[in-house]
């Protein structure tokens, strides 16, 4: 096991007339590189416009916060921010830690032991990823909340006495829901790392007399540290940015506080809280960068990777199977049973009426438009980064990611500031813009994965025939990576359909989506109306799950 250190060396290759290999671009000045039409002037303009458009709303939020006034800043620093900071950080740390424990344990049991039904468990334990946490919060409010199933059972059963011991409207309610529906981030990434791990290290450890647990702690865990860190960062970023489950369970963090400040028309205070939340997010991203640089390892064994033999659990097998079953029941089976039960009641009560299908159509319309725009805008950015790498293309990519790591409530706030008093305000177009800013990187990641498998020589051959870069991209590259483009579009489509805070703040009057109806009906305890759209969102979300699992293999 050697510490991996990247070393960059320029490759000098001869140039075919009219073509250039990407590795030679760095020797030219940026101005000459981009003014030469074969380097994609049109693509550069489109990519720069996209990057600026993605970053402007967020930059505008920061700028507006400086106009909040000293008194407002001091008041929030004294009264609100310390409490919000403690609530947000404590919840983030606890959820991240427990999600890592659950995710790593399940991944190791599935991929390193003789757990019965390992192949089935490998995808079943990833299913909580398709359930939005705010939908999970609705399900558990029905099950454990006031007047819920367990509440009624407790009061009707003579075996129990005293008050009902569970209160979902607390820190522990938010902690439980977020943990159950975010651990798959760790599970999927660690599972992929375990599948690529060479068994030689474990065999050497066993030859030294180490038992199952010693092999895990001294061999597997150090090699898994980068994957665990990556999964943990994803969980932390999600908890920091979550609004739906937090607000549904009445727990106050920065995201819910920003939303309620905007609801009281105090947008300047909302910008102050947004700046603190942006700083918190940047700190998490900085930690991720540090961990990535310090935690990169390569396997020194040569040749093909030898998959390790499953470790016999022995007497621990019933406990391991019980733990896996318990997590699956709590995170998947129980919420879906609750939603199916109330959906059946909703069907009997006429919930599947004309209004319901209008909500479905609205969700599909705005999500489909966002997916289409994201697929179109992501391609030039990824193509420039891959084929014409430079400082310019790197900056464009970083700007394009600006809205992805931040909460939807901040993105919506920035869009409100930018487009207020314009004809676009209170239109569906703003919803599409918000979804694109939030989820364009998902389309970029999928396209980049596909484009990385395509040789640059294909581009060079097309350019040698006189094709400009934009024409090469659309006529040669696009058909070749179409599956990756569609997969990225599917990810954007599903994420847009589940997005709640941006939809709440930017939807036109009278324009409801499935996410909005879940929020509204669940808030009024009309569960027979909230369950059908929640169940439909879950079923639609299964579409990109297979792609995500394959991408991690």
TrEMBL record:
<dbReference type="Pfam" id="PF00528">
    <property type="entry name" value="BPD_transp_1"/>
</dbReference>
<feature type="transmembrane region" description="Helical">
    <location>
        <begin position="399"/>
        <end position="418"/>
    </location>
</feature>
<protein>
    <submittedName>
        <fullName>Iron transporter</fullName>
    </submittedName>
</protein>
<feature type="transmembrane region" description="Helical">
    <location>
        <begin position="121"/>
        <end position="143"/>
    </location>
</feature>
<feature type="transmembrane region" description="Helical">
    <location>
        <begin position="472"/>
        <end position="494"/>
    </location>
</feature>
<dbReference type="InterPro" id="IPR000515">
    <property type="entry name" value="MetI-like"/>
</dbReference>
<feature type="transmembrane region" description="Helical">
    <location>
        <begin position="319"/>
        <end position="344"/>
    </location>
</feature>
<feature type="region of interest" description="Disordered">
    <location>
        <begin position="1"/>
        <end position="25"/>
    </location>
</feature>
<keyword id="KW-0812">Transmembrane</keyword>
<feature type="domain" description="ABC transmembrane type-1">
    <location>
        <begin position="360"/>
        <end position="548"/>
    </location>
</feature>
<keyword id="KW-0997">Cell inner membrane</keyword>
<comment type="similarity">
    <text>Belongs to the binding-protein-dependent transport system permease family.</text>
</comment>
<dbReference type="GO" id="GO:0005886">
    <property type="term" value="C:plasma membrane"/>
</dbReference>
<feature type="transmembrane region" description="Helical">
    <location>
        <begin position="84"/>
        <end position="109"/>
    </location>
</feature>
<feature type="transmembrane region" description="Helical">
    <location>
        <begin position="268"/>
        <end position="287"/>
    </location>
</feature>
<feature type="domain" description="ABC transmembrane type-1">
    <location>
        <begin position="85"/>
        <end position="288"/>
    </location>
</feature>
<feature type="transmembrane region" description="Helical">
    <location>
        <begin position="529"/>
        <end position="549"/>
    </location>
</feature>
<keyword id="KW-1133">Transmembrane helix</keyword>
<keyword id="KW-0472">Membrane</keyword>
<keyword id="KW-0813">Transport</keyword>
<dbReference type="InterPro" id="IPR035906">
    <property type="entry name" value="MetI-like_sf"/>
</dbReference>
<feature type="compositionally biased region" description="Basic and acidic residues">
    <location>
        <begin position="7"/>
        <end position="16"/>
    </location>
</feature>
<feature type="transmembrane region" description="Helical">
    <location>
        <begin position="424"/>
        <end position="441"/>
    </location>
</feature>
<feature type="transmembrane region" description="Helical">
    <location>
        <begin position="169"/>
        <end position="190"/>
    </location>
</feature>
<feature type="transmembrane region" description="Helical">
    <location>
        <begin position="42"/>
        <end position="64"/>
    </location>
</feature>
<feature type="transmembrane region" description="Helical">
    <location>
        <begin position="227"/>
        <end position="248"/>
    </location>
</feature>
<keyword id="KW-1003">Cell membrane</keyword>
<feature type="transmembrane region" description="Helical">
    <location>
        <begin position="356"/>
        <end position="379"/>
    </location>
</feature>
<dbReference type="GO" id="GO:0055085">
    <property type="term" value="P:transmembrane transport"/>
</dbReference>
